[in-house]
């Protein structure tokens, strides 16, 4: 056997070491190219394929006669591709100048919202035409800056109703966490208020996608044959119950006032007009709203962002006397011919309670008391009926319960009862004077105008009511399938037909009686039944109320009018009812029913 | 006494040259593919320029073969001195600029560090080839270390860390070849390995077991063995503590110095894209000009430092394996020649050349698969670049030079 020399020993040692190192390398290649292949293949596909979201067209809002109220216009949004942007400061500087953004601002947006080096990040929404021209002009100096068409809302009909439609805005962090917004990114546009928010999922439609091969610089190389474009599905068009004509004229009539009007079809609960004033121009939210405008809206003491018909609570005043009357008749506490004398005031203990008419109404029965809205009569009646019955009947008429109209943030009001007063003032420590106040719709009782129009509908239908709703049906713009809102009628409990007939008679006399407080509401041959209210409130002048329905004998519409700090319901609110009736029955394109 | 049967290497080693030419040819294909979709005419010209460099480098290789071995030996220190002067000159001429790697003469630009590699190898071979050098003597070892440490420092100054480390990499194998005891090599390399391993309990534990096993193998007496063991455990415990006491910027400086830069959007981006390219190539590859990472330019530096990723993507595991095996063949062949050469000087030169090429190959390919830090070392024969190709061809020339004169001095 040959002796292994020291040279050979070194040769073997060095060779073995080299082979070992190379075996490790080969093992690594085996691991990457064979064991992990699928994963890396996916990664390389993700590199080269850019998924471009194609935004669907948002659904439209259309009035009951087919007039388009809310439409879409194209607008342009500017995006940046992070990878390209970070290569050159000159691009950032120029883009900042054109878009009127600070360079740090652009960098922050990119840092915050980028999901990949090559996925565009939205820098600015709805640039004006001049900006668009500039971007197009400096295109070669702006690699990585692109723009895309994005639908933008516009309002062609002249109907404002900003509280009904709501507005769109950029999705916020908490919305991003909701399951409804899976796959959304900051900068995406969603409904923020009103119907836009309530029906967001149906209005939005389904996104489409386009797949493009891009290179490392984010440049588009070609479309991909193996990944065809997925077309977006447009959102559903919403056919509303609103009547544009009536809405416009009421918005114009209410323009200088604070308050609102709601008109419903009392045969199905469809809202025909819904006005809340003061309001804001819905157009301002179609652009990226500036912080100054937003601040001025929020700080405005007249609260234009607030939907007074849905979100505000008021004392109902004399309109609420109907509830007391209903309780008294239904429970047999009095007959309609029960009489009381009004000298213009009454005493309870050592406190004097005034009627609104200082010289008094004299001897009145129930009909007369409703017609003239006599406080003294109802003070006395309130003491006879007592708090528990009054609170029960308030609930029969659904006060304290929201109407569940398809708008957000609806308030449900408040009906005080014995429990509440005991808690507030100590058990039985409260004065009976509180009952007197509640009898004429004052005190801690709070209602929304929507609840009041529901009351008018319940009386008009003698106990039957429908859910208030703004949507007639939604229609798929592609296959034209329509989905109608379900409107099942419900009957209120605890009140008989007979009682309703008496209430209706009283409310008819409000508008047509010799001394009726609501005589200003009737127009030509259309009979009206209603109830005025003049609600005292801690914020100055009385709120003027008028609720009612027409025609009185075969009710078609019910309405509620509220003018904040307007003064007398009969003088200020009732004339607006006349406008409704005139417009609806004589000028509206709605086919007039045979009367 | 020379026996005929010992003459195994006679004439030119054609297999070696063939492998080198195949490697260069594959490199040209990869460079062609890497420059295929590029709009820039300067980059498009890479392919044809590399062909030109190929022919020029062949001339250098031939010259390196033809020169008598004695000429290398005679001029060794002159070459080394000249290389050091050039390195100093590089720093002086490029004063003020942040990167000082090149000297420009007329239309030519060349990297003195490349020349220094060859100079250091030859000088080191000459110094260690004297039989009277006692590698047990501290002075002789210190001189040898000093010979590579001087160019190392000058190139660190440029700064070009990857290239600088080549000089540290060649010294150990060359000393080993010159007869330095394996035990001594072990004793000086162990603490360095422990330092790196000490940041993880498992690797630290593993390193300790390996060191203990090596000490058992060497049987150098209880006292020395215990001393080495204790020293290494001490190093392993102290290193992480010292490290944690450093400021972030100091850590950053050290990591940068070691070539491990913490830059998620720069270097690691390159490595990620390289791994994606190689991994997505799979077994057979995506095919020539069909690699999306390469053609859409997600792969960085694809004609130079990351040229192997192009091959990994377009020719797959098979292609990678073939090239790795060709490199392995080349290195083993070199080691074999070094061991058969009867002339000590030639053998040391060949080992220096083999180590230089091997270090480049392992660091570069290791980098493309994320096993080595991104240091900017090119891949011999495949990466684009004239100076480096010429260096590599001269190294091959030196190996062949030894192989055809194995018996002579």
Structure commentary:
The complex is a heterodimer of chains A (595) and B (409). Chain A is an alpha+beta fold and 595 residues long. Chain A has 22 helices and 23 strands. In chain A, the strands form seven sheets. In chain A, strands 2, 3, 4, 5, 10, 18 and 19 form a seven-stranded mixed sheet that branches. In chain A, a hairpin with a 7-residue loop joins strand 21 and strand 22 (543-550). In chain A, helix 14 packs across helix 17 (387-396) and helix 15 (366-372) packs across helix 21. Chain A is elongated. The N and C termini of chain A lie far apart (129 Å). The model of chain A has no long low-confidence stretch (mean pLDDT 87). Chain B is mainly alpha-helical and 409 residues long. Chain B has a domain at 9-69 and 246-404. Chain B is 71% helix and 1% strand. Chain B has 16 helices and two strands. In chain B, helix 4 crosses helix 5 and helix 7 (161-178) crosses helix 15. Chain B starts with 13 loop residues before the first helix and ends in a 5-residue tail after the last helix.
Largest interchain contact: A-B, 37 and 43 residues
**Proportion in β-strands of chain B:** under 5%
- Tell the overall outline of chain A: elongated
Describe the global form of chain B: globular
Sheet with the most strands, sense and barrel status of chain B: 2 strands, antiparallel
Identify low-pLDDT runs of chain A: none
Tell how many strands the DSSP assignment of chain B holds: 2
Helix content of chain A: 25-40%
Q: Which blocks of ≥5 consecutive residues of chain B have pLDDT under 50?
A: 1-9
Count of spatially separate domains of chain A = 3
Output the CATH homologous superfamily of the largest domain in chain A.
Answer: DD-peptidase/beta-lactamase superfamily
The total of helices of chain A stands at 22
Structural class of chain B: mainly alpha
User: Helix proportion of residues of chain B, in percent?
Assistant: over 70%
Helix-strand topology string of chain B = HHHHEEHHHHHHHHHHHH
CATH-derived architecture of the largest domain in chain A:
3-Layer(aba) Sandwich
Q: Span between N and C termini of chain A?
A: 129 Å
Give the number of DSSP strands of chain A: 23
Q: Over the alpha carbons, how many angstroms does the gyration radius of chain A reach?
A: 34 Å
User: CATH first level of the largest domain in chain A: which class?
Assistant: Alpha Beta
């Amino acid at each position: 056997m040959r002796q292994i020399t020291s040279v050979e020993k070194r040769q073997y040692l060095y060779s073995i070491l080299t082979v070992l190192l190379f075996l490790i390398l080969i093992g690594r290649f085996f691991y990457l190219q064979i064991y992990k292949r699928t994963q890396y293949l996916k990664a390389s596909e993700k590199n080269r394929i850019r998924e471009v979201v194609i935004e669907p067209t948002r659904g439209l809002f259309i009035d009951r006669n087919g007039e388009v109220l809310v439409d879409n216009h194209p607008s342009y949004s500017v995006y940046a591709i992070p990878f390209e942007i970070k290569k050159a400061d000159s691009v950032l500087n120029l883009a900042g100048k054109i878009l009127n953004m600070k360079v740090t601002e652009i960098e922050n947006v990119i840092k915050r919202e980028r999901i990949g080096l090559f996925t565009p990040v939205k820098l600015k929404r709805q640039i004006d035409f001049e900006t668009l021209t500039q971007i197009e002009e400096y295109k070669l100096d702006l690699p990585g800056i692109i723009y895309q068409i994005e639908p933008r809302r516009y309002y062609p009909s002249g109907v404002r109703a900003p509280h009904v439609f709501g507005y769109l805005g950029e999705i916020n962090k908490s919305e991003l966490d909701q399951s409804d917004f899976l796959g959304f990114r900051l900068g995406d546009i969603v409904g923020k208020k009103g119907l836009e928010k309530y029906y967001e999922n149906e209005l939005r439609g389904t996104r489409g996608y386009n797949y493009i091969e891009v290179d490392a610089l984010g440049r588009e190389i070609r479309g991909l044959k193996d990944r065809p474009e997925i077309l977006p599905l447009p959102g559903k068009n919403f056919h509303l119950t609103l009547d544009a004509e009536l809405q416009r004229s009421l918005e114009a009539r209410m323009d200088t006032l604070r308050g609102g009007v709601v008109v419903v079809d009392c045969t199905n609960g469809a809202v025909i007009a819904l006005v809340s004033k003061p309001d804001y121009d819905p157009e301002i939210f179609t652009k990226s709203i500036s912080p100054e405008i937003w601040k001025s809206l929020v700080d405005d003491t007249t609260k234009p962002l607030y939907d007074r018909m849905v979100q505000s609570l008021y004392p109902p005043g004399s309109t609420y006397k109907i509830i007391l009357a209903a309780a008294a008749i239904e429970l047999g506490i009095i007959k309609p011919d029960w009489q009381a004398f009004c000298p213009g005031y009454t005493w309870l203990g050592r406190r004097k309670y005034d009627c609104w008419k200082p010289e008094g109404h004299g001897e009145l029965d129930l009909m007369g008391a409703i017609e003239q809205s006599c406080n003294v009569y109802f003070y006395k009646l309130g003491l006879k009926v007592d708090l528990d019955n009054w609170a029960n009947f308030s609930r029969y008429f659904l006060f304290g319960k929201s109407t569940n109209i398809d708008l957000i943030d609806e308030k449900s009001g408040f009906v005080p009862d014995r429990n509440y007063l005991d808690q507030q003032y100590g058990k039985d420590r409260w004065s009976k004077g509180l009952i007197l106040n509640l009898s004429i719709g004052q005190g801690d009782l709070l209602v929304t105008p929507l609840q009041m129009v529901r009351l008018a509908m319940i009386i008009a239908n003698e106990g039957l009511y429908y859910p208030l709703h703004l949507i007639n049906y939604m229609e798929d713009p592609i296959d034209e399938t329509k989905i109608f809102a379900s409107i099942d009628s419900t009957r209120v409990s605890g009140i008989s037909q007979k009682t309703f007939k008496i209430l209706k008679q009283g409310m008819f006399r409000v508008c047509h009686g010799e001394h009726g407080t609501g005589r200003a509401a009737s127009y030509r041959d259309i009979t009206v039944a209603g109830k005025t209210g003049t609600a005292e409130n801690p914020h100055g002048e009385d709120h003027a109320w008028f609720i009612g329905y027409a025609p009185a004998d075969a009710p078609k519409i019910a309405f509620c009018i509220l003018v904040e700090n307007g003064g007398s319901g009969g003088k200020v609110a009732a004339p607006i009812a006349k406008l409704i009736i005139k417009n609806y029955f004589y000028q509206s394109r709605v086919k007039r029913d045979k009367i | 006494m020379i026996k005929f049967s010992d003459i195994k290497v006679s004439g030119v080693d054609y297999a070696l040259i063939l492998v080198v030419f195949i490697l260069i040819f594959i490199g040209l294909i990869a460079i062609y593919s890497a420059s295929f979709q590029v709009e820039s005419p300067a980059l498009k010209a890479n392919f044809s320029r590399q062909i030109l460099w190929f022919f020029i480098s062949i001339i250098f290789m031939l010259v390196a073969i033809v020169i008598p071995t004695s000429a290398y030996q005679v001029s060794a220190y002159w070459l080394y001195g000249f290389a050091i002067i050039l390195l100093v000159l590089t720093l002086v001429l490029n004063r003020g600029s942040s990167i000082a790697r090149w000297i420009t003469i007329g239309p030519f630009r060349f990297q003195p560090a490349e020349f220094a590699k060859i100079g250091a190898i030859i000088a080191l071979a000459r110094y260690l080839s004297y039989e009277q050098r006692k590698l047990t003597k501290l002075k002789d070892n210190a001189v040898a270390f000093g010979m590579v440490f001087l160019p190392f420092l000058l190139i660190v100054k440029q700064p070009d860390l990857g290239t600088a480390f080549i000089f540290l990499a060649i010294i150990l194998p060359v000393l080993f070849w010159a007869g330095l005891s394996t035990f001594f090599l072990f004793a000086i390399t162990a603490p360095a390995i422990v330092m790196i391993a000490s940041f993880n309990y498992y690797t630290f534990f593993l390193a300790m077991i390996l060191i203990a096993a090596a000490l058992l193998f060497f049987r150098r007496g209880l006292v020395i063995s215990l001393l080495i063991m204790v020293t290494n455990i001490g190093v392993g415990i102290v290193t992480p503590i010292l490290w944690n006491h450093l400021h972030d910027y100091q850590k950053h400086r050290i990591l940068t110095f070691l070539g491990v830069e913490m830059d998620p959007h720069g270097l690691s981006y390159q490595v990620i894209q390289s791994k994606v390219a190689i991994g997505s190539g799979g077994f057979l590859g995506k095919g020539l000009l069909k690699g999306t990472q390469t053609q859409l330019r997600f792969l960085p530096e694809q004609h130079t430092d990351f040229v192997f990723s192009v091959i990994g993507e377009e020719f797959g595991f098979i292609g990678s394996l073939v090239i790795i095996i060709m490199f392995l063949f080349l290195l083993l062949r070199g080691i074999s020649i070094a061991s058969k050469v009867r002339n000590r000087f030639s053998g040391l030169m060949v080992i220096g050349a083999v180590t230089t090429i091997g270090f480049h190959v392992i660091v570069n390919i290791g980098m493309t698969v994320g096993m080595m830090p991104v240091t900017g070392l090119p891949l011999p024969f495949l990466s684009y670049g004239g100076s480096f190709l010429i260096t590599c061809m001269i190294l091959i020339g030196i190996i062949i030079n030894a192989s055809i004169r194995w018996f002579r001095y």
